[in-house]
TrEMBL record:
Subcellular location: Cell membrane
Keyword Membrane: yes
Membrane topology: Multi-pass membrane protein
Taxonomy of the source species: Bacteria, Bacillati, Cyanobacteriota, Cyanophyceae, Pseudanabaenales
Keywords: Cell membrane, Membrane, Transmembrane, Transmembrane helix
Domain FIST C-domain: residue ranges: 233-382
Descriptive protein name: FIST C-terminal domain-containing protein
InterPro entries, per database record: FIST_C (IPR019494), FIST_domain_N (IPR013702), UCP018953 (IPR016741)
A UniProt-annotated Pfam family: FIST
Every FIST domain range: 32-232
SMART domains found in the cross-reference section: FIST (SM00897), FIST_C (SM01204)
Length: 403
């Protein structure tokens, strides 16, 4: 297995494709180009229809998925407001890849058996696949898909992101089903299933720090929390915020979130044990809080704050935990490459520093090939279940299976 990233910031599409192609050939030589992940900034929006024919003419890539993005990531650099194209490409002689495209009308009912989900992906669960997913946020019910994939492929890792900085109908999904067969989609979702001597390790950093106490939901209705510990949720929220430092109280005015404990059996949850969800409204009369997810009685929650420092600490801890885990479970296997799916709300606007998340990844994993983009939503697992996130960085780390 060998991966490389090629990156171009040339403003002409022809020049950028030529630049990328030359980099690939210089790094991979005559090795087969088995799988590519392509990320293209919206600066090239008018050229999307021409992009795949130009790329196919230069590079004999067998299979590829990718999408448009408001910011592009390649080899430790993050181009948030500049024209850029990044291509992460792999020579995978001992791996298998299946590419699929889905529209919303193809999804089974959520009560359907697992084999209905297997039919639409045409991927056998016995092959032990993992998935990379990129989709259009306006035309596809991504939550339904990841819930169905978790049902049909419970042991599979699913990572990915939603195309960004394009309005309805303006995003682009790029696909090579096989060598010489390319397709530009404006709707739906693209997936790549990988199996064989390859695996994907997920690292998910939601970028928040807990405040106050862990509280149990005593009453709720759909996404409304009506009671916490038998009390009005809003009063408990106000009590927690009033106990904060002046700077944190100011931060809570615009960066306050709910963290839902994912492991119900963990007595003392800490940072990283929560699924972070938005507070989307409060009712001063009833004291109810509306959360950006369905709740159920008995769940435990804790308020969280997000800022650059919390995001940096969360990602650092996630990467340290990953490297420690790998040193124990697969000490003879090193990461080969990584995909980065980061929220549009992160990057330099959050950290006041360029290339922060990608540089931190390479600090801990070395200068491995890295490609990705800034998303309208990030897909990754928390507590063994796959979710659509916001304000998050999700990394999909490729390596050979531990033999």
């Amino acid at each position: 297995m060998k991966w490389v990233t090629s990156l171009s910031t040339k403003i002409s599409l022809e020049a950028a494709i030529q630049d990328i192609s030359q980099q690939v050939f210089s790094l991979l030589g005559d090795k087969s180009l088995d799988l590519g992940f392509l990320f293209v900034s919206t600066a090239f929006a008018s050229d999307y229809p021409r992009l795949l024919p130009l790329l196919a003419d230069k590079l004999p890539i067998k299979k590829l998925i990718g999408c448009s993005g408001g910011g592009i990531v390649g080899n430790g650099q993050e181009f948030e407001d500049k024209p850029a194209i990044a291509l992460l490409i792999g020579h995978l002689p001992n791996a298998e890849v299946k590419i699929f495209h889905l529209d919303d009308d193809q999804l089974p009912d959520l009560d359907s058996p697992p084999d209905r989900w297997e039919e639409i992906t045409k991927v056998d669960p016995s092959s032990a696949p993992n998935f990379v997913l990129v989709g259009d946020p306006f035309s596809f019910p991504i939550n339904d898909l990841i819930q169905g994939l978790d049902f049909a492929y419970p042991n599979a890792v699913k990572v990915g992101g939603l195309a960004s900085s394009g309005g309805m109908g303006a995003n682009a999904l790029f696909c090579f089903h096989q060598e010489g067969e390319y397709k530009l989609y404006r709707t739906g979702l693209l997936g790549a299933a990988l199996w064989g001597d390859i695996t994907i390790d997920p690292v998910v950093a939601q970028g928040c720090r807990p405040i106050g106490k862990v509280l149990q939901v005593s009453e709720c209705e759909r996404n409304l929390i009506l009671g916490l510990e038998g009390k009005a949720p809003l009063s408990l929220l106000q009590d927690t915020v009033s106990d904060l430092s002046p700077s944190d109280r100011e931060l809570a005015q615009h960066s306050l979130f709910i963290g839902v404990v994912m492991n119900e059996f963990k007595a003392d949850p800490s940072q990283g044990d929560f699924l972070i969800r938005n507070i989307i409204g409060v009712d001063p009369r009833s004291g109810a809080i509306a959360v950006g997810d369905r709740m159920r009685p008995g769940q435990r929650i804790q308020l969280h704050l997000r800022d650059g420092k919390a995001s940096a600490t969360d990602l650092e801890e996630a990467l340290v935990n990953y490297t420690n885990q790998m040193s124990l479970e697969a000490p003879n296997v090193s990461p080969s490459a990584a995909l980065m799916f980061s929220c549009m709300g992160r990057g330099e606007r959050l950290y006041n520093h360029p290339n922060f998340d990608s540089s931190l990844l390479q600090k801990h994993l070395g200068l491995i090939p890295l490609g990705g983009f800034f998303c309208s939503g990030e897909i990754g697992p928390v507590g063994g279940t796959t979710f659509l996130h916001g304000y998050t960085s999700v990394f999909g780390i490729f390596r050979a299976k531990n033999s």
